[in-house]
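Quick one, T. Sequence first:
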Amino acid sequence: MLLLLCAVIILSACSEKAGETKETNSSAESEETVPELPAVPVKNFGGKEFVIFTSNWWDYAPFMVLDLCPEEYNGEPLNDAAYERKTKIEETYNCKISQIQGVYDTAPDTVRLQTAVRAGDQLCDFAMMRGLYFTNLLTDNFLIDLDQLDNIDFENPWWKKECSDALRLGGKRFGVSGNISTAEITLTAMICFNKAIVEDFGFESPYELVKSGNWTLDKMVEMSKAVAHDLDGDGVMTTADRWGMNYNRDTVWNLLNSCGVKCLELDDEGYPEIVIDKPEYLSKTQNILEKMFDESYSSNNRRITGQFGEQRALFVFSWANGVISSRVYEFDFGIVPLPKYDTAQNDYMPNVYGLGLPVTCVPSTNDNLEDTGLFMEVLSYEGYKNLVPVYYDNVLKTKSARDSESEDMIDYIFGNLHYDTGTLLDFEFFTQRICEMAETLNTNIASHLAQYQPAAETVIKKVMDTIMSEVK
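Structure tokens:
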């Protein structure tokens, strides 16, 4: 828990100039820097059942929300911590917690919630809906403005304020992210690198590149080009060969965001404006896509599968869940944040995969906002106190990181997260379609914008007209 709360302090040297260091005594600082948590009131809910509807991410199990309602202890640290949280809340507040799991696709999950609201049915007390489809719920009064909830304070540390602010449209808060689930940790972007390949080629350690401020897109590409090789000599780069980097199409926006590119920004009135068409973003995006999609050294695992697990790739773009899955590998790997665009960029910009993030929201059919607000506050508070530390320290770091440098990098990543409104709110799938350009290695971002931006702007106007006209 200490490492999570003090993440900015522990690896602040990563954003300092080369050669500068900052020593810390984490055990001593724990008593000085970790603030006492605000109190959360206790109430007898009289046996009420709170139902949470969670949208899945197709059939990808690591993205499922599995830490709300485990049925029993099973010896896994996260499951057991989640079970203890559930039973503690049920006993302390005299209530029952249940969960409705979504289906294979996120679209039917969204339609299911919409259908229930239209029919006046209270499917759930609150829902966790993926960013990819969340904008479909921002019309026709499907959701309430969460500032109507009683007994909840979104300034508390168990709510992700920067993420919630990125979702605050027209001054209204229809979605938030917090510590109700560990899903946000799961979706945090990072890169793994093969230590043996780094040593074999005599490269400077990526750890040192991060600390000196020289971990950039061009440096990653330079190293990747040096490593890529047609091992079987057939004249074609295939899964049997050695690659510089391996990525999934859904990590495209993680790299764009880490290089300072945003899809949308909110103006002073909370109106979302597409900004990727600005000249400085457009040229940057073009360059990033050309380098990421170059199949002489970089492979999209939907086109050319595998490599990193077989020790035939230097870098792999991942999320925290991928790092956890990688702990079965018998070779040593390290963990670093995604690179800066260039050395002129002041800071690294670790980020969350917003399209997949479960956004917490409350359907407008909820008729007990007082109890719902308190229940959400308690669930997130207990998650922050007792659930997230287990996942972060025990599962992600102790069991997955191979060295103290990787642990420090993980601390830095989680202490400096950034959010892009455009990946949290995907209007007319405008953001997702940029990821899909990786399917055909299409780097013509200007053409993409010309084709899809008008429809996205139309949907933005429709959503904002609805939001601004709602009288609650």
